[in-house]
Structure formats: structure tokens, C-alpha cells
Design brief:
mainly alpha
């Protein structure tokens, strides 16, 4: 996909926008907001496990699995804000809280994810530099779709239709990637992060085996991880998928705005997506508390219109439709290649 602007933006353009944002006090911390948000998420998380213990061995626990999947996703969104230092001003408390939320709370390496997410922010949608569009299971660049055979080739040819089913595996993929990062030494606090992940795994699996029958435990695990993966994937997927892929030569403002998409939806989307529905504002000002992104949005949109910079904003369903259409388009060469081979 391509996008054009009426004239190139410059560093001074972003500086002017930043002055407007700072003049409104939108980069200031929101301790009361985060105290309430983290408290609510903690209650949801603890309440889910309390319900699990009270219900006992029952197939009704599949409902508990769904509730805890929502709690895990919301905790992951809190960890995201911690990684961007939106909650605490200094590095130390942000890292401690991030390790508790990520490693201990949801079973994902906070250090691995933070490194991956930082690289994504530096070069969103860049084919070589953004790990979120690296050709793996799904393909986001047409040239990467050619030559794939077997299961990978099948997935590439049908990736639009398989997108949501594949999201059920996202939570598992986060754990596998975390273990790989710990094994290859790319995580700084390797021993601490490993210990926290082990505690999470032992506590999670132990609780299932202690309370549920083996078949119920397996069903609980599958439902919980599937819903967790789908919810988390649906939160992040609308933000960049199907947007332009930059060359890396763009200035900061253009690179961040053109590769991002905002999602309309009011306060429901704000809470469900943890503020990531304001993806453009978040990428321009990643340290801005998520509670302030709604106020920043009209300022950024008006400024982009002033300098002739396209600003993408759409509804939630339309954002998925655009992302899926892009996946289908990218898979076209693979489908043509497959038909030619069968010939």
C-alpha cells in the first residue's frame, strides 16, 4: 500500500506539534487514573482466580477461563503502559511492575517483549526492521509470499481466512518466544525472568490439576489461551496491518503517522483496547499516559490536516476488513504460483 502527502514533513513539523501537546499538559503523569486502572485489573485477575477456587471441579469453569483470559489481556495492556513509562516516571519501578505483570502475571518475558516492541516503535511496518512484520507464519510483504511450500505455503495462500483462527495460538507463541529469548541470552535479567516464568507456569498448571479433572483442566487451558490470544491479537491487529510499509528514509512524524491507523469506538474501545485505538498519537508520543490520548487525538488530527499529512481513522470492523483485505492481496502471488505448479 502507498500513501502520499502534499509536501514532505520535517523535524520542525513534529517539534511544532510537540509544543502544542506540551502546552495542553498531555505528557503529565496520571497517577490517580493508573491507580484505579491497575486496581480494577488486579481485582478482575484476583476475582477470576477466587471464582475458580470456589466453583471447583465443574465444566462451568470454562466461563472462568474466559473471564481470566480478559483479565490476562488487560494485564498485558497495563504491562505495555509500564514498558513505555506512562505509569511511573523512573525506570526501576516500571521494570519491577512490568516483570510482575508480564512474567509472573501472564507468563510472558517482559524483557523479550520490551526489546521487540521498542524495535517496532522505532521502525513501524518496516519490512526489515520491524519484528511485527517479519515473515513468519503470516506474510505482510508480497515478495515474501513467493516460494513458500507445504504448510507455510498453504497458510500464505489462505492467510486472510486463517487470521482469526491463528490468533488462538498467539498466547502460546508468546510463551515459546519468551523461552527462546531466555535460552539465547537476549534477555538481560535471564535468571530472574526465568524464575518468574517458572513460578507462573507451576502455579497456573498446578491450580488446574489440583482443582479440575484432567479433561476439564485441558479444556480450561485451551479455552483460556485461545481467548487470551484472540483478544490480545484483536487489540493490536487494527493498528498497523494493511498500512503503508516505509523505506526507512521518512522523517519521524511521517513514519509514525502514515504507518498507523486509529480506531473509533468511544469509551468502550478506549477501555477494551487500553488506549491503543489512538495508535497514531501513541506512536508519536509513546510516553503519554493512555488516559490523555483521547484529548490529544483532535489536536494531532487537525495538525496533520494543516500540513497535508494523511491521517487514517476508521471503525473497528472496517479496520479488520482492511487488514484482512491486505493479507489476501499479499497472498495473491502465492496463490498464482500454486496454480501454476498444479498447472
Amino acid at each position: 500500500m502507498t500513501a502520499t502527502i502534499s509536501r514532505p514533513t520535517t523535524g520542525s513539523d513534529f517539534a511544532a506539534l510537540a509544543r502544542r501537546i506540551n502546552a495542553e499538559g498531555l505528557m503529565q503523569r496520571r497517577p490517580a487514573f493508573y491507580a484505579v486502572r491497575i486496581g480494577v485489573v488486579a481485582l478482575l485477575y484476583a476475582g477470576g482466580w477466587a471464582a475458580f477456587a470456589l466453583i471447583g471441579s465443574s465444566w462451568w469453569q470454562l466461563a472462568t477461563a474466559a473471564v481470566l483470559a480478559v483479565a490476562f489481556t488487560q494485564l498485558a495492556l497495563v504491562a505495555h503502559d509500564l514498558a513505555h513509562r506512562q505509569v511511573f516516571r523512573t525506570k526501576r519501578p516500571s521494570e519491577v511492575a512490568g516483570l510482575v505483570a508480564g512474567n509472573l502475571g501472564i507468563g510472558m518475558s517482559y524483557g523479550w517483549w520490551m526489546d521487540k516492541h521498542t524495535r517496532h516503535h522505532n521502525n513501524p511496518n518496516h519490512d526489515d526492521l520491524d519484528p511485527d512484520v517479519t515473515p513468519e507464519v503470516l506474510i505482510w510483504a508480497t515478495e515474501s509470499a513467493i516460494g513458500r511450500r507445504g504448510l507455510k505455503g498453504f497458510i500464505t495462500r489462505h492467510q486472510a481466512g486463517l487470521f482469526f483462527p491463528l490468533l488462538t495460538l498467539l498466547a502460546i507463541d508468546l510463551k515459546v518466544s519468551s523461552v527462546k529469548a531466555l535460552r539465547n541470552g537476549t534477555v538481560k535479567r535471564r535468571g530472574l525472568e526465568t524464575a518468574l516464568l517458572v513460578v507462573h507456569a507451576v502455579a497456573f498448571v498446578g491450580a488446574l490439576l489440583l482443582v479440575l479433572s484432567p479433561l476439564q483442566a485441558l479444556a480450561f487451558l485451551l479455552v483460556h489461551q485461545a481467548i487470551f490470544g484472540v483478544y490480545l491479537g484483536m487489540t493490536f491487529a487494527p493498528n498497523h496491518k494493511g498500512m503503508p510499509h516505509p523505506t526507512g528514509d521518512e522523517d519521524f512524524l511521517r513514519k509514525q503517522v502514515l504507518t498507523s491507523r486509529n480506531v473509533r469506538g468511544g469509551w468502550i474501545a478506549d477501555h477494551a483496547m487500553g488506549g491503543l485505538n489512538y495508535q497514531i498519537e501513541h506512536h508519536l508520543f509513546p510516553g503519554m499516559p493512555s488516559a490523555n490520548l483521547r484529548r490529544a487525538q483532535p489536536i494531532v488530527e487537525a495538525y496533520c490536516a494543516q500540513i497535508g499529512l494523511p491521517y487514517a481513522k476508521t471503525g473497528l470492523v472496517a479496520s479488520y476488513r482492511q487488514a484482512l483485505a491486505f493479507l489476501h492481496e499479499v497472498g495473491a502471488p502465492a496463490r498464482a504460483e500454486h496454480r501454476a505448479r498444479r498447472g
